[in-house]
Structure formats: structure tokens, C-alpha cells
Amino acid sequence: MDASLEQHRVDLACSLRWAARLNLHEGVDNHFSLAVPDEDGVVRGNRFLINPYGYHWSEITASSLVLCDAEGTVLEGDNYVEDTAFFIHSRIHIGAPHATCVLHTHMPYATSLTLLEEGRLEMMEQNALLFDGRIAYDDAYEGLALATDEGDRLARQIGNKSILFMASHGIVVAGPTVADAFNDLYYLERAAMFQVLAKSQGGKLRTISDKVRADVRQQFSTEAPKLADRHFTALRRILDKTEPEYRH
Questions:
Q1: Of 15, 63, 90, 164, which has fewest CB within 10 angstroms of its CB?
Q2: 163-166 and 135-138: which strand pairing?
């Protein structure tokens, strides 16, 4: 196996195991995917790794991940891809070229915001500011994603943003690497949790000035990649000690 593809498998398996540990999963539903290079070495979204149908995230290993193409043909692996996963992930990979890694969850706090009319992540707290200007909102739930048209619609909705809040459904996080996307996924749920907890207290919420928001956006543009790298390195290190079979 190509060494880079093997590492991609390890990283995606690590992210799924940690999402289960952090209660960001939902049964055997939801999927994480990673576009990998075509045979000429260029990433076009035509080939991607994704967790297989019917596996709990806590049991995913690098070798259990499926490599498939844009038509749903399994190129590597003994398993297959669930239909809604294929239509969401394949079309976002192709329609939103920046979305090399696509993580879709129904994680509790962030998803709860999608159940509110005009539900938004408010820029009132430091973790939320990591996503300032990076969020798209789809305010029209249109049922299960069981067709190419719905996948294409979601790709248009996320556009060039990193986060998509899907009305009455869940979240999509897109990033250039597994580490970057998983770091965003983690801190997005933390930001949503803090917002829900703060609003539940019934007090007046703090605001952050536009100037400070602009300053923090600039700070995060350099700090976030470093944070993602050291965060994900630590997560791999812990799994290497406690669940080393995830690499196999």
C-alpha cells in the first residue's frame, strides 16, 4: 500500500475512534471521509476513504475503511458505503474542492442549534471565534440525502466555508487535512455547548466588539493550524497506547 494512503487511513481511523470517545457519534450512522490523490497524484475528489456501512466508530481500523470512487465503486476494501453517506460526501468532495476531509455528525450541542429558527453560533466566546466568517447555514431541511441532487445542493450550501449547519439535521465540517477538520469538529461542539449552557442561565450575554473579532480572526489564521497539529498528534499518541489496533 502507498505509504501516504496508509497514513491517511490511520488518521481517519483515529478521528473516528476519538469522535466515539467524545460522544460525537450516533449509533452506526454518520460518516467521515477523506479525498485522496488520483493515480496522477492530484486530489480531485474522485476517490475518497470513508467508514464502511454498519461499523460502530469505536471499532473502525485503518484497513476497515473503504476506498471508493465518485460512482460509488469500491476500489479497496471488503465493505461498502451507506447510500446517504455516498451522496453527501462524494458530492461535497467534488463540488467544494477545498473540502479534502469531510466530517458529518449529529453531535448533540451543535445539532441542537440547527433545531432553532435562525439558529446560529454566536460570536460571544473564544472557541466560537475560531469559526468567525467560516460558517454557512442551510435553513431548509429536505429529507434524507438519497440522490445526487441533494448532495450537490449541500455542496453549494457549504460553498467555500469550513462549516455547514444543516437545518434539523446536523453538521458538516470540511478541512484540508484530517487533523484540521477534527480540530474544528471538536472546538465547534465545545463552542456550541458553551452557548447552550450560557443561554440556559437566563442572564445577559456578553458581546465582543468587531475590532476584537477582527484581531482574533487574524490570530487564529496562524494559531489554528499549529493547534490542530499538536492536538491530533496527542490524540494519535493516546490511541497508540490504549487502542493500538486502530492502525491495523
A1: 63
A2: parallel
Cα–Cα distance for residue pair 26/20, rounded to 1 Å: 8
Q: In what order do the strands lie in the sheet with 163-166?
A: 74-76, 66-69, 47-50, 31-35, 101-105, 170-175, 163-166, 135-138
The average confidence (pLDDT) of the chain is 96
CATH topology of domain 3-247: L-fuculose-1-phosphate Aldolase (3.40.225)
Query: Which tens digit of pLDDT belongs to each residue from 83-140?
Result: 999 999 999 999 999 999 999 999 999 999 999 999 999 999 999 999 999 999 999 9
The helix (H) or strand (E) run that includes residue 193 is helix 178-200
Q: What pTM was estimated for this model as a whole?
A: 0.97
- What are the extents of the domains in the chain? 3-247
Give me the amino acid identity at 13.
A
Is 80 exceeded by the pLDDT of residue 1?
A: no
- Partnered with residue 26 across adjacent β-strands are 29
Contact by Cβ (8 Å): 80, 74: yes
